[in-house]
């Protein structure tokens, strides 16, 4: 009980601490979506305020937040602007990986960088007709004790705002798959904001190109040591985006109904804010947002279990089988939530438009961004595959895959 109270108090303190940031972010979200203006200043301000280090232990200068607390804040941030929440997806995944890494100077150096406000972006997906499982981005020894990286990646969400790029590559000298943490502030790195999706327009997603970019050997991380619950973690960020989008829809559509002065001759009330049918619509949207947030919380608990298991395994306190079970539980929880929340949130936001008339589709209001953003977030890692895998587990006891790849089938 004492731990629970402490967590609640810490979450309340963190919410109060970042409330001004989130409120400021929410004020400009619609205009950024309309204009395509990237949130450089907003993300830089969040980093300066220590948001990127909230998972870092207090002993190392961070806030020591649990995963449950982190994702509560993520839903708050996504409700303010789901683009910014998703833009920070890779950063917090890399933070998580370093938190469960072997203790030592290398780990401490990264934790210090996070506390200093440095951010990490993503560069994983190969461009073009690459066969499933192939990695054509290569890291090569330069003959002088260092390494160079060459390749092109797409879906580089958040990289344009970052200081480091979490890049999936293959070493030419050993053939091993690695994560190359590439300093983006160098001539050999080119970033383009060329994502053309109808949603998540300002996540800074696009192409990352590496041309003989320098990578220090200490920043080549063996992929086999990557934290095992990474796919569940990545999915959880998208779930928080869905929950935040539903909450934002509840907020914005409720505000529109409250101030609406026009009504119809066949409406159930003379004032929109007193019309029982319109109030029912808003109530249903609010309920969907509640369920989505609750699902995020349950997945957070499973992820926290996987994190605690990784630490316990590192300390020799549990067996490998026990650790595997904790990671499988996290993967299952994130998959089950994804299968449920994707249609739930999309239908709820679409239904929200039933509380307004045609004016609700005005580009000036930009209410459609909530649906577009949720639809785009829900299109990652297609949930139809997850539903099949969950069914295979239920019927045949087949474990869900925790790592997968995308590419051409031939």
Automatic annotation (TrEMBL):
GO terms for biological process: L-leucine catabolic process. It holds the Pfam family Acyl-CoA_dh_N. Residues 23-118 form the Acyl-CoA dehydrogenase/oxidase N-terminal domain. The keyword Hydrolase does not apply. The keyword Oxidoreductase applies. It comes from the Bacteria. InterPro entries: Acyl-CoA_Oxase/DH_mid-dom_sf, AcylCo_DH-like_C, AcylCoA_DH/ox_N, AcylCoA_DH/ox_N_sf, AcylCoA_DH/oxidase_NM_dom_sf. GO terms for molecular function: 3-methylbutanoyl-CoA dehydrogenase activity; flavin adenine dinucleotide binding; monooxygenase activity. Keywords: Monooxygenase, Oxidoreductase. This is Monooxygenase. The lineage of its organism: Bacteria, Bacillati, Actinomycetota, Actinomycetes, Micrococcales.
């Amino acid at each position: 009980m004492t731990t629970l109270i402490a967590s609640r108090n810490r979450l309340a303190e963190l919410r109060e601490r970042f409330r001004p940031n989130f409120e400021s972010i929410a004020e400009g979200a619609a205009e950024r979506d309309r204009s395509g203006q990237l949130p450089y200043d907003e993300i830089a301000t969040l980093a300066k305020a220590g948001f990127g280090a909230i998972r870092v232990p207090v002993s190392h200068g961070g806030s020591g937040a649990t995963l449950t607390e982190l994702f509560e804040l993520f839903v708050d941030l996504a409700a303010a602007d789901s683009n910014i929440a998703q833009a920070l997806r890779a950063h917090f995944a890399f933070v998580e990986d370093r938190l469960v890494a072997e203790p030592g100077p290398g780990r401490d150096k990264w934790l210090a960088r996070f506390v200093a406000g440095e951010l990490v972006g993503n560069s994983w997906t190969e461009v073009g007709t690459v066969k499933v499982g192939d990695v054509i981005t290569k890291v090569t020894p330069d003959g002088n004790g260092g390494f160079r990286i060459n390749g092109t990646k797409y879906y580089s969400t958040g990289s344009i705002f970052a200081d480091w790029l979490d890049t999936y590559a293959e070493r030419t000298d050993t053939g091993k798959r690695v994560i190359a943490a590439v300093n983006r502030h160098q001539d050999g790195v080119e970033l383009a904001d060329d994502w053309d999706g109808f949603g998540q327009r300002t996540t800074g997603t696009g192409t990352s190109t590496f041309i003989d970019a320098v990578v220090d050997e200490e920043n080549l991380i063996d992929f086999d040591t990557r934290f095992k619950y990474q796919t569940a973690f990545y999915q959880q960020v998208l779930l928080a985006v869905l929950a935040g989008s539903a909450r934002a829809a509840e907020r914005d559509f409720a505000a529109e109904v409250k101030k609406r002065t026009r009504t119809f001759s066949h409406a159930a009330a003379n004032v929109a804010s007193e019309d029982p049918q319109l109030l029912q619509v808003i109530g249903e949207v609010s309920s969907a947002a509640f369920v989505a947030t609750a699902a995020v919380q349950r997945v957070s608990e499973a992820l926290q279990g996987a994190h605690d298991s990784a630490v316990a395994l590192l300390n020799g306190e549990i067996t490998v089988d026990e650790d595997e079970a904790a990671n499988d539980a996290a993967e299952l929880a994130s998959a089950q939530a994804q299968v449920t929340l994707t249609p739930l949130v999309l239908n709820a936001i679409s239904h929200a438009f039933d509380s307004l008339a045609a004016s609700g589709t005005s580009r000036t209001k930009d209410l459609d961004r909530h649906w577009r953003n949720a639809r785009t977030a829900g299109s990652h890692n297609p949930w139809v595959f997850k539903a099949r895998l969950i069914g295979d587990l239920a019927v045949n006891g087949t474990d869900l895959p925790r790592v997968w790849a995308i590419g051409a089938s031939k």
